[in-house]
Please model this.
Amino acid sequence: MMPLVSCETDRLAKYRHRFSLGKPICETKTGDISCSTDSKLLEQYSTLTSYVYIKQLPNYFQSEESIDILKRYLKKQNAIDFLATVNLSELNKNKKALVYDLPPGEMLSSYIKRKSVKMNYQQVSFLLIKLKDMIEQLSLVDMQHGRIEIDSIYISKDEHLYLLDSAIVAAKHELLKREMLPSRAVPNQEATTASPEVCFGRDVAIQDNVFNLTLLAYQLIYNHHPYDGDNSVQALIRKCRATRLEVMTDNQWAIFRQGLSFHSANRFASLSELIEALLCVNNPDGLKFQLSKNQNAALTAWYNLNHAVKKKLCMIIPASLGQAFKR
Model:
């Protein structure tokens, strides 16, 4: 069984002559993350906590043009993160990283490891509701993701979620479209939660997000990767379908089989359908839930408010999980 997160020794130690970048939190597909209490970093970046998170950049962000593209998406990411900001910092000559000022909380992977429990269908459904909202917020500022990993999710004590790699993923997609990266048969081969279409670098469609969140749900509920850690293209080439675990009922397996179909047309038509299926699969009364039809309007209003204020104020937008649904 594959672990949800792998940690290792301090890979940033060689840069400590300028900043103390702290203890590594986890290794991720889009750059390793550490937690720092360095006084210089806190003085420069922190307003919410006594620490900041440091995320290394992938090696494809080296040229001035690629950094400019990343800066543009960082600005967009900051426009929709109401209580958090991310900055591009130069750690050393020609060595840059992202510095996050986040509300008190922890990485989702650390939370799961600390609790030593697997999430159930209802808990995962509520988490996916929040991720669905985040995907819709990203679309408001013309950002696409499609390859959300467990190790990219930060959860605050107030249960707000933050994706720490949104700008990196969106910027890489633009680099691919501009043909600014070396040609590879599978440009996003490191993306182990992405659909085949996203692995090949195509634009993210609704069904790609369905695939992504279905795979996340599989991992969170069963602590197992459906393709034993391979990306979907590798699984497709090997003609390897998602693994049905013995503990899955027929109805549970039907959800994952549909959500993880290699043919996008066979997946759920929307994230709402996926979430509803996950919520109802173990409901003995067969009660139906329906996602609010007014969420897009609410998200637009949230974005407009954030864009107008743009300063960290002591206010929290209510976002209880129960309000995300109505009967």
The beta strands are 23-26, 33-36, 52-56, 85-92, 95-101, 105-107, 153-156, 161-163, 290-291, 325-326.
